[in-house]
Structures
1.
Amino acid sequence: LASFPAGLGAGLTISGAAAGIGPLAAAAMEGIARQPNAAGDIRGAMIVAAGLIEGVTFFALIVTILLAIK
C-alpha cells in the first residue's frame, strides 16, 4: 500500500532535480560561450550548485524510502 506514494515521491524528486540541473547547465554553457576565459570559474560554480541539488535529491529519496519501509 505504501509503495505507490513512495514511487510517486521518488518520481517527483527526480523530476525536480532534473528541472533544477537542466537550466543550471544551460546557463553555464551559455556563460562559457560568451566568456571562454571564465570557463574554469563558471564550471566550478556549476559543479558546486549541481552537487547541492544532487545532495538534496539524495536526501529526499532516502526520506521517501524510509517512509515506504515504515
2.
Amino acid sequence: PAPTTPTLRGAVMGGTVHSLPVRALIVGGGRRGLALARELTEDGNAVRVVTRTEDRHPAIRAVGAEPWPG
C-alpha cells in the first residue's frame, strides 16, 4: 500500500507522491558531508553545513549549501 504520511522522500496527496523539501544541518564539511549536501541541494532542499574551518566555506557554497561556523 502507498504511504499516507509525509516522509523525507515524499508525501501522498490525492494518490500522487510529491517531494517535500527539508531543511538539513550537516555537521562536518568534509568529503562525505559535501557529497550529502550536494545531493540534498540538488533535490531542492535547504542545507547548512557546520564547519570550524573558514577555508571550507567556498567548497560548501559550491555545492549549494550555506556554511555555518561551529
3.
Amino acid sequence: DDAVFFMFNPFVEETVNKFLDMLDASCAQYPRETWFLYASPVHAAVLENRGYQMRYRHKIMNLEGMILCKS
C-alpha cells in the first residue's frame, strides 16, 4: 500500500531529516510509493534533495501547498 503524509510545516529541518531517515529505512524494507501533501512548505528542499518529485504546487496570496511523491 502507498503511504500518504500530510504536513503543515510541523518540524524544524533536523526533525524532518530524522523522520525521512526512518521513512527511507522503512521503504527499503517494505517498498511503496510515498506521498507528501505539504502546506506551508518551509522545508520542501529537504524532500526534493532526497528524491521526492514535485507533482503539484500552488500559491494563493500567502498560502502555499505542494504534493510530492517518491516511488
